UniProtKB/TrEMBL annotation:
Keywords: Membrane, Receptor, Signal, Transmembrane, Transmembrane helix. SMART domains: Mab-21 (SM01265). Its main location: membrane. It comes from Callithrix jacchus (White-tufted-ear marmoset). This is Inositol 1,4,5-trisphosphate receptor-interacting protein-like 2. Residues 371-451 form the Mab-21-like HhH/H2TH-like domain. Signal peptide: none annotated. The gene is ITPRIPL2. It is a single-pass type I membrane protein. InterPro entries: ITPRIP-like (IPR026250), Mab-21_HhH/H2TH-like (IPR046906), MAB21L/cGLR (IPR024810). It comes from the Eukaryota. One of its GO terms (cellular component) is membrane. Coiled coil: none annotated.
């Protein structure tokens, strides 16, 4: 995907002013040292007052140019924002388009330079850790180590930072760490989408029974069960009379193996950064914290958190991950009907297919399409809506409107139209954002169903390439099915309230101070949600 660089006026003009001031100071020092050796005759002007007048004129010109550039950049009706006059009642209000664009530039947009440095640093550190984990193997866990899990040796970077729609700061990343199964073990994955006795929250999960791999020798099932018994005892649980790979046991092994691997590479990393590993227990994957070293004088000294997610490859770039994503992981050890055990549940990760889908849309998009910018603003709108909520309400709000849900909303809207056409041009940014908000609200109110964009017969399989059979035959997954109707209605009300109060929120939380003088909208209606108001 193309990355567009824009001039940050808030940094550029102060930099020019500082440079001019430095030149004046340098001239003053040089003139003073020369004047000490050769004082001018009485009545002769040494020239420095004239230079000060010239510098003052130059600074006045710079300030006027700065004001003119800002007015031209954000003036309603300019080519950049000319289409906002056709946006809804809110975007017909004077000054609101200025607030939206300014909020994006100052609070949402991520510096490509800083993001690139952060991704490269994460890739280097995680690469060393994974290679150390592969070389260590699993000593002592299972006698002989032949039937142990192991790191495959590579890692896969997923999430918004690698899809060009991350916002604010490049300080959190997700990385899949694929695991290698023993040669004697194969998996028989199965979707739980048809298990009607399960709560809707669990129907997007998978279970993985063990089976014998295809063998030309035709070994009997009894011999295979006996041979793989050490692996089954260490990593599996019984579900309906069959041994199933346990996400909880795999996650526990993964965290301890990472700790041993980190001890191996910690010394070699001391000169570049400080690295610590925080176990996530049975509900979250472990997090690798990368802190800048005091001797690191790089231009992007950021503290970063990297979630390392154990993954089992199913084929065609699809992985099962442990634990399942929230809110499923919060009930990882619950008893389920039908003889199922929640510790055997796995989530599915189709990040590779989603990246292909975004690339497919990018190839067919009109030049200047702003759909990724709309997604970034939709995330920012969610964050604004969380302000003023207590911790429990904010957590529920963030789970319902997760980044994955918001990305799926964008993909669903785009796929309904085939590709981002001229209607997604930058000049229609406000209208496109309103369309996403309206579709999301309809999904929360059950007017539309927000299906997973890849799973099931209705997924975008034709655009993303081949999929494993178990995914093609899986039942469609409603991403909001895990939440009850009351929570969804509250979220929809909060979303509408946030949208209606957008001008006030943008003035309060974003942009330079000179934009606070923009005229307020005529409508000041507000609507509460979850007992909290920003």
């Amino acid at each position: 995907m193309s990355v567009h660089y824009t001039l940050n006026l808030r940094v550029f003009w102060p930099l020019v002013t500082g440079l001019c001031t430095a030149l004046v100071c340098l001239y003053h020092v040089l003139w003073g040292s020369w004047g000490a050796r050769a004082e001018p005759p009485d009545g002769v002007d040494g020239g420095f007052p004239l230079l000060k007048v010239a510098v003052l004129l130059l600074l006045s010109y710079v300030l006027l140019r700065c004001r003119h550039a800002v007015r031209q950049r954000f003036l309603p009706g300019s080519p950049r924002l000319g289409g906002h006059a056709a946006f809804s009642r809110h975007f017909r209000e004077p000054g609101l388009s200025i607030l939206l664009e300014s909020y994006y530039e100052h609070e949402v947009r991520l510096s490509p330079h800083v993001l690139g440095h952060s991704k490269a640093h994460v890739s280097q550190i995680v690469g060393e850790l994974v290679r150390a984990g592969r070389s260590r193997g699993s000593p002592g866990l299972i006698p002989g180590g032949a039937l142990a899990l192991a790191f495959r040796g590579d890692f896969i970077q997923v999430g918004s930072a690698y899809e060009q729609h991350k916002i604010r700061r490049p300080d959190s990343f997700d990385v899949l760490v694929p695991l290698r199964l023993p040669p004697l073990v194969a998996l028989d994955p199965r979707s739980l989408g048809e298990e009607l006795a399960l709560a809707p929250a669990f129907r997007s999960c998978f279970v993985c029974a063990l089976k014998a791999p295809p063998s030309p020798s035709g070994a009997s099932g009894g011999h295979w069960l006996r041979d793989c018994k050490p692996f089954a005892d260490g990593f599996c649980v019984d579900v309906r009379g069959r041994r199933h790979l346990s996400a909880a046991l795999v996650l526990r092994w993964f965290q301890s193996h990472l700790q041993r691997s980190l001890a191996t590479v910690r010394y070699s990393l001391e000169g570049r950064c400080r690295v610590t590993l925080t176990p996530g227990g049975l509900e979250q994957p472990p997090t690798l914290h990368i802190l800048p070293c005091r001797t690191d004088y790089g231009c992007c000294r950021l503290s970063m958190a990297v979630r390392l997610i154990p993954a089992v490859h199913l084929g065609d770039g699809v992985f099962l991950v442990a634990p399942p994503p929230p809110p499923l992981s919060s009930g990882l050890l619950l008893e389920l009907p039908g003889g199922l055990r929640s510790e055997a549940l796995w989530g599915v990760n189709t990040a590779r297919q989603e990246q292909k889908l975004l690339s497919w849309l990018q190839e067919r998009a009109a030049p200047g399409a702003c759909y990724l910018k709309c997604l970034q603003l939709l995330k920012a709108l969610r964050d604004l809506g969380a302000r003023g909520l207590d911790s429990a309400a904010a957590t529920q709000w963030g789970r319902i409107l997760s980044s994955y849900v918001l990305k799926t909303v964008l993909l669903a809207v785009l796929l309904r139209k085939g590709a981002p056409g001229q209607s997604w041009d930058e000049e229609h940014l406000g209208k496109c954002l309103e369309e996403l908000v309206q579709f999301l609200r309809d999904c929360l109110l059950r007017r539309h169903t927000l299906f997973h964009c890849v799973l099931g017969p209705g997924g975008a399989a034709a655009e993303v390439g081949p999929l494993p059979k178990v995914l093609r035959e899986a039942a469609p997954v409603d991403l909001l099915a895990a939440f009850d109707g009351h929570a969804r209605e509250l979220a929809a009300a909060r979303l509408l309230s946030t949208w209606q109060r957008l001008p006030q929120l943008l003035r309060a939380y974003g942009g330079p101070r000179y934009l606070a003088r923009c005229p307020p909208p005529r409508s000041q209606r507000t609507q509460g949600f979850l007992e909290g108001e920003p």
